[in-house]
Specification:
heterodimer; A: 178 residues; alpha/beta; Glutaredoxin; two-stranded antiparallel ribbon; 19% strand; elongated; B: 158 residues; mainly alpha; Helicase, Ruva Protein, domain 3; 0% strand
Chain lengths: 178, 158
């Protein structure tokens, strides 16, 4: 028998070990967004307050976070205080009230404070569908031209903000200031 | 007896239905229904990741089914509908990914491995049949004598 054949099982083992080791750090429930680098989808929806019609043009002008939420979503309640905190620091956040009861949404915003500059009412989930939303909370980062730059699936907390969103957001803000 | 039979048939038919999420869509013809069923089986639910959207009760799967039904009503082709989904949810939603440089291994990997297995098998079989291999199996005259001696020794030992 040739010597090199003895090495084959070891090589196969090492190859598999590399793949399995990488697999330990994968997060299969966080899909890479197909929307990164694309403009924010066109929409024309009422505000949650019902006082105006909002379109994608309203989101342009400044980099912003666009947070998809609903009163039916427990994790949204978890992240809400942190969004309030970010809004107080001057971060621009818009909200998409996704597949929700509007009265419940209004009550929630009155009760827990409203961190959103614009409140988009997506009762049918049509905007959510165009955004590739598959749950809540999801948070998009858009630049001043309304191009989607990043998407975070799940709760935004201090760690997520510090490590993922803040550097990108700051980068976009700095881009806008010559 | 007849009643029991009817109950059994009804029960079995319900068991078949229980697998699929319940929607009530009216299709124009059987061809459209078939396309709907094919598409919802081919597309993967983004939320509950190991189910197709026909099988899933997640709200997002229901939305996607409704969207597929709407697009079928607008006479869009299967490819258009799949592109619509991939644009929003990425290649992930396809249970049958498109054939690209990235998915080449996925599509042909198993075939290549199978072919490799057959090649190895053929080599082994051929080697066993070859006269060289047979020669090594036969004992030389010297070896036969030695074997006979050893066997003798063993027998006298007993």
């Amino acid at each position: 028998m040739k010597r090199w054949i003895m090495v084959v099982p070891l090589a196969v083992f090492l190859l598999m070990a590399v793949f399995l080791y990488k697999g330990l750090f994968l997060k299969p429930d966080e899909l890479p967004s197909a929307m990164i680098g694309k403009p924010f989808p066109a929409f024309s929806l009422q505000s949650v307050q019902g006082d105006r019609t909002l379109t994608q043009a309203d989101l342009q002008g400044r980099p912003a976070l666009v947070n998809v939420w609903g009163t039916w979503c427990p994790s949204c309640k978890v992240e809400h205080p942190y969004l309030n905190q970010l809004a107080e620091q001057g971060v621009v956040i818009h909200g998409i009230n996704y597949k929700d009861d509007n009265a419940a949404a209004l009550k929630w915003l009155a009760e827990f404070h409203n961190p959103y500059q614009l409140d988009i009412r997506d009762e049918q989930g049509s905007l959510g569908l165009d955004l590739g939303v598959y749950g809540a909370p999801e948070t998009f980062l858009i630049d001043a031209k309304g191009i989607i730059r990043y998407k975070h699936v799940g709760v935004v907390d201090a760690t997520v903000w510090r490590e993922q969103l803040a550097p990108l957001y700051q980068g976009l803000v700095d881009e806008g200031q010559p | 007896m007849k009643r029991w039979l009817a109950a059994a048939v009804l029960g079995l038919s319900l068991a078949g239905m229980a697998r699929a999420a319940i929607d009530t869509y009216q299709f124009r013809d059987d061809a459209e229904r078939e396309r709907y069923q094919q598409l919802t089986k081919e597309l993967r639910c983004p939320k509950c990741q190991n189910q197709d959207i026909a099988d899933s009760n997640a709200p997002i799967a229901a939305d996607l089914r409704r969207e597929i039904f709407r697009m079928l009503g607008e006479n869009q082709s299967n490819q258009q509908i799949i592109d619509f989904m991939v644009d929003r949810y990425g290649d992930f939603v396809r249970y049958k990914p498109a054939l690209t440089a990235r998915t080449w291994l996925l599509w042909f990997g198993p075939g290549v491995l199978l072919a490799g297995g057959f090649v190895v098998l053929a080599v082994i079989v051929r080697r066993r049949r070859s006269p060289v291999a047979q020669g090594t199996c036969e004992l030389s005259v010297d070896e036969r004598e030695r074997l006979a001696k050893l066997l003798d020794k063993e027998q006298t030992h007993d």
